[in-house]
Amino acid sequence: MSEAMTSLWQPRGAWEGTARIGRHGAAAGPAGIRLSLREGFGLATLIATEGKEADLQTALADRFGPSLPDAGTALFEGETGLVWSAPGQWLAVAPSPRDLRDWPEALRGVASVTDQSDSRALVRISGAQARAMLAKGVAIDLHPRAFGPGRAAVTSIAHIGVQLWQRDAGPTYDLAVARSFAGSFWRWLEHAAAEFGYEVEAADQRRSK
Q1: Rounded Cα–Cα distance for residues 161 and 3 (Å)
Q2: Beta carbons of 80 and 95 less than 8 angstroms apart
Q3: Total Cβ atoms within 10 A of residue 154
Q4: pTM of the predicted model as reported, rounded to 2 decimal places
Q5: Cis peptide bond N-terminal to 171, omega within 30
Q6: What is the torsional sign of CA 93, 99, 100, 106?
Q7: Average pLDDT estimate for 137-162
Q8: Which fold has domain 42-115?
Q9: CA angle (164, 168, 171) in 5-degree steps
Q10: Could you say which enzyme class this protein belongs to (predicted)?
């Protein structure tokens, strides 16, 4: 196989060719937004078998540690956690896809586990103006009284479905979007962040599958 053909099969990050690393937008003063690309993470949808949610909770606690978050919330220990997605459904997040490899077999009979690691694009949004920027697009109330650390939502931005959860009071948010919409979403993100000045940070290249 030629070198040109081989190169076509090299893994590509979800934001590769879309996000430009560095400082952009308003140049005066410190950047109000930081966009940290999140590559190489393990993601999986977790859907409880009907009538087995309590058994799922027990199985998770015994084998993996994470607890099932209530509706509209996310629970994390470091970079590992679960994000509520819908009744009986959660998004599992782990530092690497290999961290979720044992879940399908371990949770057999109590939940279906579907790998989503290559189907979603993740970005971390932080900085003094992160809330103001996101408020331009999301159809939910991001005021700290309504949406603070540990809160999660399934919503849309620029007619693109997104899953959003707040990591801390900084505020820092993590956001997941279908990989096929990553380019369109990033164009909205650039326009929304430009007035505040924003920095784009590269993904940690040491992370691997």
Answers
A1: 37
A2: yes
A3: 18
A4: 0.90
A5: yes
A6: negative
A7: 95
A8: Alpha-Beta Plaits (3.30.70)
A9: 75
A10: oxidoreductase
